[in-house]
UniProtKB/TrEMBL annotation:
The protein's name in its UniProt record: DHA1 family purine base/nucleoside efflux pump-like MFS transporter
Domain of life: Bacteria
Keywords tagged on the record: Cell membrane, Membrane, Transmembrane, Transmembrane helix
Pfam families: MFS_1
Molecular functions per Gene Ontology: transmembrane transporter activity
Major facilitator superfamily (MFS) profile domain segment(s): 4-377
PROSITE patterns: MFS
Provenance organism: Saccharopolyspora antimicrobica
Record membrane topology: Multi-pass membrane protein
Length: 416
């Protein structure tokens, strides 16, 4: 079971390394295609908005596909998109290549997350989701910092050739997964029906705002940190590595906190850390240790919130888990896309120093909305199994069904 989760995590790592790498090499891309850095940043916006729109639509179009074939299709589109990115001679072609890669990426992560949640008992669901999303955070730990360091040697085009090769390897690793049959057909209208749940919509809005706050700054992290600290490529790679390690730690720790104390603690705590890390960036005064400490807070909060949000959504709609996770992926990428637009506008108007505080304001808004979120009965079901009557081995524990979580979730996972 752990190995299957690892395979899903590897695929998530590859997909998201290709997605986030653009942010790390924006200056090089801008110079090659002859556009300002803030214009090149819109490549992140285009990729993210394509993902946000296509995730629920494509999951309906290919809803009858066997799940492993769906993951293969996703990686195939992703590989072609990254090859096209490496070969693109101008900004227009480069934009089209990012759209193609985003179409593939939008199919992978929602499916992987729900299958992961289906593979484990209920009381370990948060940790399973964290493990798969750990591939996403490791993309920021390894992918982006390494890309910044290697770009001077191989060029950004060489980096995207490497990502395409990793996509082929990830496709091969999927052979370790058993075939997962498609569920009964579900129309787009039926999928959208989960949005009638007010609590679900509320969580999705908070998730989108948290992503916007994170990526308004992260999209332009390289030029922003360079302007604030005077750091060169090597030091920038180290700073981005610090941020990524903190993100991986936040993802793992908040997953466990969510299993133990509930998603509310994980969401609120993550938003507070995100706010603090972004708000005080300009006050670091160019000090690398102080900047590194703030990047730790930023990474812990920005990535720690993800497993808590996923857990809350699955708990609120267990029978529609696959659909609501796909909508959350759309919310995350919508926030990422709006973050690219917002960050570019803030930097153009007020300069790089303003990005952190402006992003922190959005995180505060997300926290305020979360505090006003209505308490729902389904959320109370998210209490870890060891705190329920009968304990971890009681009748409601997943182990009593042969290690499978709620059968409703199994059906949903097959519908991802």
């Amino acid at each position: 079971m752990q190995f299957r989760l690892l395979v899903l995590a590897v695929g998530t790592f590859v997909i998201n390394t290709g997605s986030y790498l653009v942010a790390g090499v924006l200056p090089a891309i801008a110079e090659h295609v002859g556009v300002p850095v803030t214009t090149a940043g819109q490549l992140v916006t285009v990729h993210a908005l394509t993902y946000a729109i296509s995730a629920p639509v494509l999951s309906t179009v290919v809803g009858r596909w066997e799940r492993r074939k769906l993951l293969w299709l996703s990686l195939a589109l992703f590989v072609v998109g990254n090859i096209a990115t490496a070969l693109a001679p101008d900004f227009g072609t480069l934009t089209a290549a990012r759209v193609l890669g985003a179409l593939g990426a939008s199919l992978f992560t929602p499916t992987a997350v729900v299958i992961a949640a289906d593979l484990v008992p209920l009381d370990r669901r948060g940790r399973a989701v964290s493990m798969v999303l750990g591939g996403l955070t490791l993309a920021t730990v390894i992918g982006v910092p390494l890309g910044v360091l290697l770009e001077e040697s191989v060029g950004y085009q060489g980096l995207f050739w490497m990502i395409a090769g990793l996509g082929v390897l990830a496709s091969t690793a999927l052979l370790a997964l058993p075939p997962v049959p498609a569920p009964p057909a579900m129309r787009l209208g039926e999928r959208i029906s989960v949005l009638r749940n007010r609590a679900v919509v509320w969580v999705l809005v908070v998730s989108m705002l948290a992503s916007l706050a994170d990526f308004a700054a992260y999209t332009y992290a390289s030029p922003m940190l360079s302007a604030l600290t005077g750091a060169g490529a090597g030091t920038l790679g180290v700073l981005l590595f610090v941020y990524g390690v903190a993100g991986a730690m936040g993802n793992a720790v908040v997953g466990r906190i969510t299993d133990r104390f509930g998603s509310g603690v994980g969401i609120a705590g993550s938003l507070l850390l995100l706010t603090a890390g972004l708000m005080f960036l300009p006050l670091a005064g160019g000090s690398l240790p102080a900047t590194g400490a703030l990047l730790v807070l930023w990474g812990l909060g920005g990535w720690g919130i993800m497993p808590a949000v996923q857990h809350r959504l699955i708990s609120a709609t267990p029978s529609g888990a696959a659909v609501v996770i796909a909508f959350n992926s759309s919310a995350l990428y919508l926030g990422m896309g709006l973050g690219g637009i917002t960050g570019g506008a803030v930097a153009a108007q007020w300069g790089w120093w303003a990005l952190g505080p402006a992003s922190a304001v959005v995180a505060v808004l997300a926290l305020a909305l979360f505090w006003r979120m209505p308490t729902t009965a389904p959320e109370r079901e998210a209490v870890p199994a060891q705190h329920e009557v009968g304990g971890a081995d009681g009748p409601r524990a997943a182990r009593s069904t042969g290690g499978s979580p709620d059968p409703r979730l199994r059906g949903a996972a097959e519908g991802a």
